[in-house]
Amino acid sequence: MAVEKMTMVNVIGNISDADNVLKDIILSGKVELVSALSQIEDNSFVFKVEDENLEKVIDLNYISSFQKDKSHEGIIKKGEELKEIFHIESNMEPDLKENVDIPSISKELEKIYNEVKAPNEELKKSRESLEKIEEFYRSFSQIKDFQIPIEELKNLSYFDFRIGVLSKEDRLKLKKNYENILATILHTGTSKYGETYLVMYPSTIREEMNRILRSLNFSEISIPEEYKGTPKDMMEVLESKKNELIKNIKLLEQHLNDLENEYKDRIVKIVNHLNVKGKIEDIKEKLARSNRFFYLSGWVAKKDKKKIEGILKDYKDILIMFKDDLDITPPTKLRNFWLFRPFESLVKMYGMPSYNELDPTPFLSISYMLLFGSMFGDLGQGFILLLGGLILSRKNKMFGGLLGRLGVSSMIFGGLYGAVFGFEHLLPAILIKPFENINTVLVSAVFIGIGLILMAYIYGMINSIKRKDVEEGLFGKEGLAGFLFYLCLLILVGGKLLNKPILSMEIGIGIIVICILVMIFKQPLTHFIMNKRPLHGEDVTGYYIESVFSIIETLLSMLSGTVSFIRVGAFALTHVGLFIAFETIGKMIGTTTGNIIVLIIGNIVIIGMEGLIVFIQGLRLQYYELFSRYYKGEGTEFDPVNIK
Length: 644
Hints:
Layout: E1 2-3, E2 6-14, H1 18-28, E3 31-34, H2 36-41, H3 54-59, E4 64-65, H4 73-85, H5 102-141, H6 150-154, E5 159-166, H7 168-176, E6 184-191, E7 194-202, H8 206-215, E8 219-220, H9 231-284, E9 288-289, E10 293-301, H10 305-312, E11 319-323, E12 334-335, H11 344-350, H12 361-375, H13 379-392, H14 397-417, H15 438-467, H16 470-475, H17 480-498, H18 505-520, H19 522-529, H20 540-564, H21 566-589, H22 592-630
Antiparallel strand pairs: 1-12, 2-10, 2-11, 3-10, 4-9, 5-7, 5-8, 6-7, 9-10
């Protein structure tokens, strides 16, 4: 239940083994690669200089990065094109342990591509031709009653003609202005697209007629030069061509379907292997190389050192070294008990823990389940959340696990409250009935908040020690001084409220004053202890003004943060009150069936709406009242190399 201790692994091996070593590292899922070239240039790539390693040291003088092999990219495109032709969407996971001859499978895919390409291109052209013919057929069907051969109109010396369609509105517009148009306009047919007209006009007014017809939104029916005879003759020719094309398309589709059945699985497998090869080439850019050797650097958890050595030990002349004396901050790899693991997602939403920072997941897990359960305590509704979590776990293990654990917490508090699907009279309360003990619930919520805030201070001090931050750890508002300040305030206020002084007022105020002074003078005090000079920065006045205002802000933050937890009790009461409202509505209906329906709807609303609100409120208390006191979350997540 902590941040994994990391080490840097450096590997040197024969360049011929680079691909296989990368495959084994990818399969292990234990290594996050970093740029080996950068490590070498920064003199961070170290290993024992012994006689058998001299060649590897000498070759460092000829170091360079791997040049990406792009020879397979063209064939990958062809593979993707084949998947598109056959509408293949599924992807099989390639077996990285399988040794694949890339040139051989590339040739195989090229052969399949050539076999599929010709019929597919012919099918495309046939479909395009069919589409054009159908378009012409539709056009000619609009003028099928026109008996004059089209070529006779085309051969007119002094006249032009246009055939096209007008909408109802444009036809009326034409009718109104007909006497102003120097043309013969004949109605030749009606279709679902509108009214079809033949327009004949002198060639000398061609431009003017084009302008007039454009203004009427005249949709012209184009007639290709090769079509002759009357529209009815043309339709017969088109019908014959159409039938031939349909027959040919069916044959081509059947042929391609046979090819798909034969090659589908093989295409997917080859394309996946080639994609893996491409991703390995991308990953390989993080490696460095000389004439004979490759150089690899990466982060690995200390507990996985032996696994990595075991994976790579069979390679000839390979050199594996681990460097624990780290010059750069490692990435963060979380290690948590199975119960807490789903809550890592909530931590990551705020920020990844730094390598030298406590993992807040265990504290967040326990406190969040406590807060959620106390606000949403119900055996029946908690069981629904648990059931929903188990179902969701099949698709989203993290969110499903989170929902399931919150459901269990809700069930536990439901037992303590004696609540089942909103009913509080079916079971006796093991601990308390919230609606019958309002003051106790609200006060208890504040005490829960105080306990969590004190724990947050302890976490903050431990984090400061891990970061070696004396200034914030000892004298900061979230450090020891702030902790004592808050604790003394609680003791003094608690003593007054209980009328039983725990600490004398004089001593308490004295400690508080000292804590305030320590927080104001934290920088000079730290510099004095650490023997640093000068004691202050450049802007001394600005520093003290900021420090004084920071004390005011700290005091307000302590008060508001403590009182903020009263919402935990308020939501516990709201949870009961909301169901009482639905129960009252059900009784007002007056029928058993109506009452049952209202109660079912009420439970659905409470589980959905109030459950979400309580989830958000719990998260708000974690992020704003607790995390802000001890957690920075400025780390980088450990990202082991993979091919996904």
